[in-house]
Write a structure and sequence with these properties.
The protein has 129 residues and is an alpha+beta fold. It contains 4 helices and 4 strands. A 4-stranded antiparallel beta sheet has the order 2-1-4-3. Strand 1 and strand 2 form a beta hairpin. It starts with a helix and ends with a helix. The mean pLDDT is 96.
Length: 129
């Protein structure tokens, strides 16, 4: 599926899950190079959620891991400790970012922000089931 079409489907699913949870969010989908393909902020989502969702998507697209899995790796003494200081601070280890794969091939990163980290994770995971 063409990436923009896939991004629209994912964004619609995220919005539906966020509406069910009554948590307005922003969602960003980036390509594997970190370029924004689609970005959407629901009515009522905080303005800063747009930027954070983009950073979560960027991180998952470039690292290929959910952002919740990255958090332990960026702690002092861990292998990715300096990651969050690279690329002008664009990398983010807050839960809510996930890689998007198609036939086991990384195709995009999805970032959701607007609730707590746990809410963002639950929304994006439900949307991608």
């Amino acid at each position: 599926m063409e990436l923009l079409l896939l991004a629209k489907v994912v964004a619609d699913r995220v919005e539906a899950e966020a509406a069910k949870a009554q948590v307005p969010v922003a969602v960003t989908i980036t390509d594997v190079h970190g370029n924004v393909v689609l970005q959407h902020r629901m009515t009522g989502a905080p303005l800063f959620a747009t930027e954070i969702s983009a950073r979560k998507a960027y991180t998952s697209a470039l690292v290929g891991l959910p952002t919740t899995d990255i958090l332990p790796m960026v702690q002092p003494g861990q292998p990715l400790y300096s990651l969050t200081s690279l690329a002008g601070g664009r990398y983010c280890a807050i839960g809510g970012g996930v890689p998007l794969t198609d036939a086991d091939r990384l195709v995009a990163g999805v970032g959701v922000s607007g609730g707590t980290a746990d809410q963002d994770v639950a929304i994006v995971e439900a949307a991608l089931r």
